[in-house]
Write a structure and sequence with these properties.
With 90 residues, the protein is mostly beta strands. Helices cover 0% and strands 68% of the residues. Strand 3 and strand 4 form a beta hairpin.
Length: 90
């Protein structure tokens, strides 16, 4: 059985740069089914980057997703937290 749903996709995003070595970026999406606003998804992607040395930064990222009616066997809420180093070629 196949079912087609039309979803809206709206988002709000912000970026903060308190100084040249720090950045905070976050985007949140809201995706309801147009025929049933009780069936929606929300997701957020956020990151913090802190410059450590000339071209090396520490990056901390967080991703969260929520679906009111997830696929069978899938939890309604999922998240991911990661840290790492990044190198910039500038």
């Amino acid at each position: 059985m196949s079912k087609k749903n039309l979803r809206n996709s709206s988002y709000v995003s912000f970026s903060l740069y308190p100084n040249k070595n720090v950045s905070v970026i976050s985007t949140t999406y809201y995706q309801p089914i147009l025929e049933n606003f009780n069936d929606y998804r929300i997701s957020n992607q956020s990151s913090l980057r802190v410059g450590m040395f000339k071209n090396i930064s520490l990056k901390v990222s967080y991703t969260f997703t929520y679906d009111t009616f997830p696929a069978v066997g899938t939890p309604s809420s999922q998240y991911d937290f990661s840290t790492g180093l990044s190198y910039s070629f500038d």
